[in-house]
Amino acid sequence: MSAVTSPMTTTVASPDKSPEHHYLNHSSGFLSWALTLDHKRIGMMYLAGILFSFFLGGVFALAIRIHLWNPNLDPEAAWLSNATYNRVFTLHGAIMVFLFIIPSVPAALGNFLLPIMLGTKDVAFPRLNLGSFYLWVTGLLFFTYTLFSSGIDTGWTFYTPYSIESKSAVEAATLGVFILGFSSIFTGLNFIVTINTMRPPGMTWFKMPLFLWAVYATSIIQVLATPVLGITVLLLALERFIGIGIFDPALNGDPVTFQHFFWFYSHPAVYIMILPAMGIISELMSVHSHKGIFGYRMIAYSSIAIALFGFLVWGHHMFTSGMADVTTIVFSALTFTVSIPSAIKVFNWLGTMYQGTVALNTPMIYALAFIFLFTIGGLTGLFLGALSTDMHLHDTYFVVAHFHYVMMGGTLVAFLGGLFHWWPKMTGKMFNDTAGILSAAIVFVGFNLTFLPQFVLGTRGMPRRYASYVREFQQLHQLSTIGAMTLGLGLLVAGLVLLHSLFYGKKAPMNPWGGATLEWECSSPPPHDNFSSPPTVGDPYDFTSVEYDGKTGSYFKKKK
Amino acid sequence: MNSLILADISEGFWFPPAASTFAKQVDFLYYAILWISIIFFIPIVIAMIYFMVKYRQRPGYKGSPEALHNTPLEITWTVVPSFIAIWIFWEGAVGYLDMAIIPDDTVDVAVYAAKWNWNFKYKENGAESPILYLPIDKDIKLTMQSKDVLHSFFIPAFRAKRDVVPGRYHYLWFHPTREGVFDLFCTEYCGDNHSTMITKVQVLSDEKYKAKLAELVKEPEDIVERGKWLYERKACKGCHYAGTEGAKGPGPSYNGSWGKKVPLANGTEVTFDENYVKTSILNPMEAARKGYETASAMPSYKGQLKDEQIDALIAFIRSLESGPARPK
Ligand code: HEM
Ligand SMILES: [Cu+2]
Ligand SMILES: [Cu+2]
């Protein structure tokens, strides 16, 4: 089945001996994908699934914003009933968090890149890797089921006791979350083992690309924190089925215990979401500045510091929940410790551009947008970490805006940047750069228009998760809705640019951007086995010997 | 009543009116962090744009790969933000302690949160009201409890918030400094009608407050009026609209139902009369309406309402026999 000799001719010469033979045409047929053990194909399947989830979550997001165009003070005249609105925002949040953001970078890009960046053939446990993917699909099916049964209306946080008495499909959703948790744990485990045991000779820890450091730190959190989520949703399901009385006040349980359980996972989970994104940005800033990363060690250490401190701050989601005053104050103090490593990273990324040769192409523009948006997200975390201001801001739109700046402005924008960056490698096609930059610009404008007004809504007192609101908030809500439409348009353009490249894109050279990590030393797309002979490992950020070859449109490494 | 609809129009860009002593602390720290953020953010953006322009890839230009490290710089940008963070934490904690430590000698109000309704009971004379009335310039202490799920008590103009947790008493205090009417929201998601669990707080001068309490303590004599009075205070209003006929909230509308046949979940039909209403209130599961199987269940009021109160509720529901009267 393998295309050993292909009649097609290449337009651009590639140093690979059989340029037409790569992982995409290595074998064909449905089963060759469905049962593949190739990390690249698994990564691509994740990518397709994740983008589908993102689309679904996005449709719900637009529904939310359209509904909030009006104050809906008369529930009869509102577009969605309150009950429907609650289902829409819950599914939006749950899909975005559990099905999209958490697996996005590690499972899709990570799977594709990790072995190649390590110069190996695959991850340590390829079968487990495929298993993780099918667990993810099963989780998706559970969520799809809730969608077609009575929905789910508890919010993505499943707070008790409402989640105990809710008549929506809480069981299906929690089982879905449980299964997705295992998918996440197995991926993390696989990556940890791969990085620990399969680094090629010469790649010491401090010769590792920062993307791998970030994925490594993420994997540690996934393995350590996700089991707590598993047990939490299991206890919740038991509480619903047989009333074990841990969370239910009617049975002498304490609903606040649930919040501790939940945030013990979910705060570290926000770092599962952001660390890989930070890893992407480190790669993008350095490759497109054609200059080594500034303060490599600080970035590597700060990833690990964030992963560890991240376990100690969950209480900052519960400042108003009636914890003891001392506990509350200690959690606030600890919260500020995580803000410092994030700040350091921003400075280091800027330092990377300093005196570099900055190529302003699509991935880089997304990376710069990330820095802008993530900085706002991080700075607004300070308002929420400080106790007296959080008393006012908790559970208002200010929090909504904060986490969209970090999760969407941060992780999603970094994910898009990474997608554009590695797209030529993954698909072998170049996209239209001008159109890509246009998409980034629309996303940037739309994003700010959507979420800046929400900060003001929050400080003025607009609570979260409201299907209707008092009149004084209407103008800001309408601005936000207009922004959301713009944002949707930007994402649509980004999608079209990538789709267009699949059909009409020029063939991608081996190293279109001038990266020095190993994935740029195999052809685009990579062959089935990644490397015909083990690559030599150098400094991943040594750009002095990377030079451009006008004939092939590719960079290459000068032999020293 | 009309003046209550547009309560807090914001006075500045960021905040609703500052109507309690907490506002000063919170707003000060908010503006302080805002300025600190701006002072960090502007240079970051300027540096970014400057580097984008100055070091952009272009023919004839080649950057230098040298600057990879600068220990003094790296120490500075770790240590300076750390000190600032410590200061922010400190200010926040001091403000928090002020909110957490309840002074002696307070005016006490009990807060009952239930899906989807607030009810306030004044310790002074036992009066109850669905709107919170407070005297100005007094320390107020709220003792809050929830009948069902989590709620959260939030008055933006007071910068005061605290969750209301079933099975516990939570306390909140504040000191109103300004007369007027302000919004009061539930900010912890509590199911279907979370967003309608809003009411107002009215801060009054001392005499007016006393007069208000004296007025509130008198329950209406007329039985229908009394029914409506209970409807507003016992959370019925949060689930049952008394407005448009057939309007479906979490529970059925009372309007125009009296005397008609209504379908039950078990497939039978029943006449909407005194007995049916009484069963619905005391044993709602026994008389569950068709079409409400996935709704937020009606809680049983057994032991919480006296017979005489149930009679009043029945009279009120019956008075809506002939369709919309929009009691508001
Ligand atoms: C720079 C440091 C950060 C600080 C100091 C910080 C602080 C906080 C605090 C105190 C809250 C709770 C606010 C409240 O509910 O009253 C919060 C909420 C949240 N943060 Fe952050 N944050 C930071 C960065 C991040 C990052 C990087 C992410 C994710 C990528 C993130 C995601 C979230 C989410 C999802 C919530 C809301 C969860 C919910 O209630 O549904 N934060 N943040
Ligand atoms: Cu957190
Ligand atoms: Cu609520």
Question: Care to describe what's here?
Answer:
Chain A is built from 15 helices and two strands. In chain A, helix 2 (39-67) runs antiparallel to helix 3, helix 3 (82-117) packs across helix 8 and helix 7 (210-242) runs antiparallel to helix 8 (255-289). Chain A is mostly helical. Chain A is globular and about 70 Å long. By secondary structure, chain B is α+β, with helices and mostly antiparallel strands. Chain B has seven helices and twelve strands. The longest helix of chain B is centred in the first third of the chain and has 33 residues, at 22-54. Chain B is elongated. Chains A and B meet through helix 3, helix 8, helix 10, helix 11 and helix 12 of A and helix 1, helix 2, strand 7 and strand 9 of B. Residues 157, 270, 273-274, 316-317, 335, 338-339, 342, 378, 381-382, 384-385, 390, 393-394, 399, 402-403, 406-407, 410-411 of chain A line the site of protoporphyrin IX containing FE.
